[in-house]
Amino acid sequence: MAVTAPLPLPEQKQAWYWKIAGVALHTFLVYVIAVRLGPDLAKVRCLLVLPSLALYNSIPPRDWHLQHLELLTVVPGLLGGYIN
User: Fold this and answer.
1) Which residues contact 77 (CB under 8 A, 6 or more apart)?
2) Which end of the chain, N or C, is less packed with Cβ atoms under 10 Å?
3) Could you read off the pLDDT of 21-32 as tens digits, one per residue?
4) Are 64 and 45 in contact (CB under 8 A)?
5) Whole-model pTM?
């Protein structure tokens, strides 16, 4: 008695609108992370981290955030996109 290999199952294609919805969700999540996380990181740095290390800065969190705007938007956005 000869043993035959099982027939391969046909691959099911994913609908195009699910791909577009996935890209849109990914883009939205990266946008939210980049825009909302930057000011929160600046507040944490200026209000929690520096005082706990006995380092005091005369720059308010909002000004520090604007001085480091590129760093505080690009890095969390890239990390969030990579993880997502």
Assistant:
1) 30, 31, 33, 34
2) N
3) 989 998 898 888
4) yes
5) 0.59
**Cα–Cα distance measured from residue 11 to residue 2, given in angstroms and rounded to the nearest whole number:** 27
Residues 80 and 29 sit within 8 Å (Cβ to Cβ): yes
**Over the range 40-72, which residues count as b (16 or more CB within 10 Å of their CB) and which as e?**
ebbeebbeeeeeeeeeeeeeebeebbeeeeeeb
Query: What is the SS3 string spanning the chain?
Result: CCCCCCCCCCCCCCCHHHHHHHHHHHHHHHHHHHHHHHHHHHHHHHHHHHHHCCCCCCCCHHHHHHHCHHHHHHHHHHHHHHHC
